[in-house]
Design goal:
- The chain is α/β, with parallel strands linked by helices and about 350 residues long.
- The protein has a domain of about 170 residues: Luciferase-like domain (TIM Barrel, Alpha-Beta Barrel).
- Helices cover about 45% and strands about 15% of the residues.
- The protein is built from 14 helices and twelve strands.
- It has an eight-stranded parallel β-barrel with strand order 1-2-3-5-8-9-10-12, surrounded by five helices. Strands 6-7 form a two-stranded antiparallel sheet.
- Helix 3 crosses helix 5.
- The longest helix has 21 residues.
- The termini are close together.
């Protein structure tokens, strides 16, 4: 299991970091011992920081987790992904997500319909474009949502010596999970996921689709940002737990994620969290996340204990794990967790 971090503050509670500080974040990530780094589309383009990351490190794997697919079109995404794959010398992964209808229509002013079908076609269009560039295949992609039928020599890049980048699709529900297994090289698991949901819902569906496509599980990457509440003192741990409860409550109020709670028999919790969110009572929501829910969704405890528990839960289940800490975690504590995760 490879251990990843993030740059830009998406998973460490610091918000969106200043672009000028990304070089320092990359250096810190190498010092901590991460295998890779992800960027998210929160207040900044997700691709630009990865150019700096590729320049500052010759070993770290880099990727987007996620870039919003439907805010763009396949040609623009194919182009920037091809450039990052080339510049990083094959260390780039394109992670795509659909976002939700209000953001696509009202924030990005882009069309929304049939997200699973649209995502499937988006990825197939990417592959057709890359095949044109790398394998001299005529560009003739004609779908229901996207059409790409023109590629003149002046706009065609040279074949990428590192090939096309792998594509991972963010998914929670069954339809998008099936799309990820059908046309993706892997799946970005949502943080609002439990070990039980992975074992009983996500993986059986992934395995079923892979088998139909004649692919093995070893050809498919599962990347999971797991919630972590840790600290070196009782005060630090208590503060981390409070922050993680709030994040679980935030996700638990979202209808698209209610199936995870329902699997555990906590459907009523979703209804109550949704009610409080509509009333704007965000501060009260974390108090509804009791210890049973907390420990199901998050790994909690001192750094050494957390590392052992992460490995117990997820070794052999996911391929890449990103410690998700929606609060500020000092570098020494983070390094202790990552070191424990790398132990044989």
């Amino acid at each position: 299991m490879l251990i990843d971090g993030d740059i830009g503050g998406a998973m460490d509670g610091t918000g969106v970091a200043e672009f000028a500080g990304i070089s320092e974040q990359v250096a810190a990530a190498q010092a901590v011992g991460y295998d890779g780094l992800w960027t998210s589309e929160l207040g900044r383009d997700p691709f630009l920081p990865l150019l700096l990351a590729a320049e500052r490190s010759s070993t770290l794997h880099i990727g987007t987790a996620i870039a919003v697919a439907f805010a763009r079109n396949p040609m623009t995404v194919a182009t920037v992904a091809n450039d990052l794959q080339s510049y990083s010398e094959g260390r780039f992964t394109l992670g795509l997500g659909s976002q939700i209808k209000p953001h696509i229509e009202r924030r990005f002013s882009m069309p929304w319909s049939a997200p699973a079908s649209r995502m499937r076609e988006f990825v197939l269009a990417l592959r057709a474009i890359w095949a044109c560039w790398n394998e001299d295949v005529p560009l003739d992609f004609r779908g229901d949502f996207y059409q790409h039928t023109l590629m003149t020599p002046v706009f065609r890049p040279a074949p990428n010596p590192h090939g096309a980048p792998p594509v991972l699709i963010a998914a929670v529900g069954p339809q998008m999970t099936s799309v990820a297994a059908e046309v993706g090289d892997g799946m970005l698991v949502h943080a609002f996921t439990t070990r039980r949901y992975l074992r009983e819902v996500t993986l059986p569906r992934v395995q079923s689709v892979l088998e139909k496509r004649g692919r093995g599980r070893d050809q498919f990457t599962l990347s999971y940002p797991g919630l972590l509440a840790t600290g070196r003192t009782e005060e630090e741990l208590a503060s981390a737990v409070a922050a993680v409860r709030k994040r679980i409550a935030f996700y638990g109020a979202t209808p698209a994620y209610s199936g995870v709670l329902e699997l555990h028999g906590w459907g009523e919790l979703h209804a109550e969290l949704k009610r409080l969110s509509k009333e704007g009572r965000w501060d009260a929501m974390g108090g509804l996340v009791d210890d049973a829910v907390l420990h199901e969704f998050a790994v909690v405890g001192p750094p050494g204990d957390c590392a052992r528990e992460i490995r117990r839960r997820f070794d052999g289940l996911v391929d890449r794990f990103t410690p998700y800490t929606p609060y500020t975690l000092d570098e020494a504590t983070r390094k202790a967790v990552v070191a424990g995760l790398h132990e044989d």
